[in-house]
Design goal:
Number of domains: 2
GO cellular component, one term: cytosol
Number of helices: 10
Helix content: 55-70%
Radius of gyration: 17 Å
EC number: 2.5.1.18
Strand content: 5-15%
Structural class: alpha+beta
Distance between the termini: 28 Å
CATH class of the largest domain: Mainly Alpha
Order of helices and strands: EEHEHEEHHHHHHHH
GO molecular function, one term: glutathione transferase activity
Function: Is involved in the conjugation of reduced glutathione to a wide number of exogenous and endogenous hydrophobic electrophiles.
Protein name: Glutathione S-transferase
Strand order of the largest sheet: 1-3-2-4-5
Length: 230
Amino acid sequence: MAAAGAGGDDLKLLGMWASPAVLRVRLALSIKGVSSYEYQEEDFDNKSELLLRSNPVHKMVPVLIHAGKPVCESTVIIQYLDEAFAGDGRPALLPADPYERAVARFWAAFIDDTLLKAMYQASWSKTEEEKVEGKKKVAAALKTLDGALRDVAGGKPFFGGDAPGYVDTVLGGLLAWARSMDVINGVKTIDPVTMPLLAAWADRFGALDAVEAVMPDVNRLVEFSLSLTT
């Protein structure tokens, strides 16, 4: 159990260090400047009673516990954090405008429903044919996001505009995983030639202090990923 800042009795995050979904929540906390929380690392082979009690439906991380009340699922947690920790100079992740907020939620859903599923297929399918097909789907989804960055951001550096927002956080949770796959496969997942806007975004987002503070080590992720396939 590791503490991330003092006075975290009121806020606790149950997670697993290599999980992209958990990374999303840690990114949201960091970007919003919420440093006073307790982080509890979970062992999937021996899940804690707190995790099983807090998420009885899926029994999975991440789970955010705020004032004794659990919130589950990464995108739900991010939206909760944005509302529960609003004001006091903290940046908003979701736009104030209802239409812009709906657009952000659409692209976040696209990332989970299309890109994330394709990444799982590319990485964990049983046959090479399925993996190859998955990689094609990953490339297509990323190219779609490259176009979305152009259309949604309108030339600004992030999906959220001048500062990272909800979509940046949801997609950013996959960056460390993508970079570990780059090392394993020897090919850039986010190709700067075919998706230049998204590649530039990944560099900008990854260089933010709030992001660097919580990003897992890529080499450690590579070792972890390879251990799952042996």
